[in-house]
Design brief:
Elements: E1 2-11, E2 14-20, E3 25-29, H1 36-51, H2 54-59, H3 64-67, E4 76-83, E5 91-100, E6 103-114, E7 121-128, E8 131-135, H4 142-147, E9 150-154, H5 162-166, H6 173-183, E10 185-188, H7 192-197, H8 213-223, H9 225-238, E11 242-249, E12 255-261, E13 268-269, H10 275-288, E14 295-299, H11 307-322, E15 328-333, H12 336-339, E16 347-353, E17 356-361, H13 366-373, H14 378-384, H15 386-397
Helix pairs in contact: 8-9, 9-10, 10-11
Length: 398
């Protein structure tokens, strides 16, 4: 499942922003404080809305007045265009959140589908203030859409997403597919100290900070041996000297990671290996764990990694995004070294003007394309200021 377009209005620094024609791997570049983490929080916010409700997601971020863009009134809007499968018709999901009697409410939740390039749009889900209709069936053809049985439903509260309840039933095929997509979004912001401390609980997938790295490693080793061997082989390629990795259970029940360096007889505890070794291993586990994510958001992977490892890591991200078992990968960065391994078609730039942030696609700049054709690297253009300058020109031309 692939996200092709995202539109947002009145969400924090994004007063009005649109990102379209999104590739399998997309890199979002910007200076500190421009809103890279906030862009990723769009997906975290929608995930929280689904897993609990809109009120909870809003309150976790300080309340409605803190979430809506500064000096703006009205509603917060999201629009996501996606395809359940590569050959399926495009689906549009729209969510509009407002405030009533001081409480967040879903003013409108709509899902639309179009057959062909110019066919009419059909609402397969249309809810207002917790009440509406939804279409049943797989909806593969135009006749399916016209003749679909649209059932009336009423939610228990106006701050609950309709896709949360209806998406549990396979009879609402497209709605269920989108619910699964949101459930499968994963934001990764590894913290080296958390990964070393191993304070997390048993899990089959890595947490956002990586604090359960040893537990996930042990799970993969015990239940997915071939996958574990693949991770170790890649680790040997990326980090010379590492010959084995072990997740060992201690007498107190804690799981400890140990790395074997071929030059020494005894393995080292994770506390004594380099930050780069821990972080590369964490990413290799994330990218090769059994539970692949439809969308993986990675915040500033360059931290604690040597520049020569960044190209290796970019290759891993790109491979993940291009395989059928993987999914889309969104990466935030401001590192010239990381950008040197990024392709122009993958790069977006965030620019803040007059207090709000815009996002532009850098392949739309003829000047940047000319620099790349002449052999320049994106990281060098970022350091020299050309990317920032051209991003501002693109905003001015919009």
């Amino acid at each position: 499942m692939k996200i092709e377009k995202i539109s947002v209005e009145n969400f924090k620094v994004f007063q009005k922003v649109e990102v379209e024609d999104i590739p399998n791997m997309a890199v979002f570049m910007g200076q500190n404080g421009v809103g890279k983490s906030t862009f990723f929080d769009i997906f975290g916010f929608l995930h929280d809305c689904l897993s609990t409700n809109v009120s909870n997601a809003i309150n976790r971020r300080g309340g409605f007045d803190e979430v809506i863009s500064r000096e703006q009134s009205g509603t917060i809007k999201f629009e996501i265009k996606f395809r359940p499968n590569p050959k399926d018709p495009k689906v549009t999901y729209e969510l509009e959140i407002g405030k009533k009697n001081g409480l967040p409410v879903i003013e409108r939740e709509v899902m639309k589908m179009r057959r062909g390039q110019s066919g009419a749009l059909y609402n397969i889900l249309d809810f207002k203030n917790g009440e509406g209709r939804a279409a049943q069936g797989e909806l593969k053809t135009k006749d399916d859409l016209k003749n679909a049985n649209r059932v009336h439903q009423k939610l228990s509260k106006p701050d609950i997403l309709a896709i949360k309840g209806l998406g549990q039933f396979e009879e609402f095929f497209v709605i269920s597919a989108f619910r699964k997509l949101i459930e499968d979004w994963h934001v990764s912001d590894f913290h080296i100290n958390e990964a070393r401390r191993q304070s997390g609980e048993y899990s089959e997938t890595l947490s956002k900070t990586g604090d359960n790295l040893a537990h996930v490693t042990k799970y993969i080793y015990e239940h997915h041996q071939k996958m574990f061997v693949s991770i170790l082989e890649k680790m040997k390629q990326r980090i010379p000297g590492v010959s084995a990795v072990e997740a060992k259970q201690m007498e107190d029940g804690n799981i400890v990671l140990k790395f074997q360096d071929g030059r020494f007889k005894n393995p080292f505890s994770a506390r004594f290996v380099s930050d780069g070794t821990i972080k590369m291993f964490s990413y290799l586990v994330l990218l090769n764990e059994p539970n692949r994510h439809a969308l993986l958001c990675v915040e500033e992977p360059e931290n604690q990694l040597y520049p020569e490892l960044l190209m290796e890591l970019t290759e891993e991200f790109r491979e993940y995004s291009q395989t059928q078992v993987g999914g889309q990968v969104f990466i935030s960065t401001h590192s010239p070294d990381f950008l040197n391994s990024v392709e122009l078609d993958e790069l977006f730039c965030l620019i803040k003007e007059n207090g709000y942030t815009k996002i532009v696609r850098m392949k739309n700049s003829p000047q940047i394309k000319a620099f790349i054709d002449e052999g320049e690297l994106l990281g060098y253009l970022w350091k020299r200021g050309d990317l920032l300058k051209e991003a501002k020109n693109l905003i001015g031309d919009a």
